[in-house]
Design brief:
alpha+beta, 2 helices, single chain, about 35% strand
Length: about 80
C-alpha cells in the first residue's frame, strides 16, 4: 500500500470495504479521483479508529460497496 490508485482501482481491489485514502486527488466538486490507500476494512469503525491513530493530514474515507436504500448519510 503506498502506490497512488484511481478510485476505480480502489473499488476493484477493496470491494465492499471502507477505505482510508491518504493525499486524495479531487476534482472541482471534491469527488475523490485517486490517492494512496492507507488502511481498509469491512468494519467502518476499525477504519475510523485507524484514522485517529495515524492522524493523516489530508485524507478521505470511501465505501466501495452499495449502501442499503434506507441509509442516511450525514456530513
Amino acid at each position: 500500500m503506498g502506490d497512488v490508485l484511481t478510485v476505480g482501482e480502489i473499488q476493484s481491489q477493496f470491494d465492499s470495504e471502507w477505505v482510508l485514502v491518504g493525499d486524495p486527488e479531487t476534482d472541482e466538486t471534491l469527488q475523490v479521483q485517486s490517492g494512496r490507500v492507507i488502511y481498509h476494512s469491512k468494519d467502518r469503525d476499525e477504519v475510523y479508529r485507524k484514522a485517529i491513530d495515524l492522524k493523516p493530514t489530508r485524507f478521505a474515507m470511501l465505501y466501495t460497496g452499495t449502501l442499503p436504500k434506507d441509509t442516511a448519510i450525514v456530513l
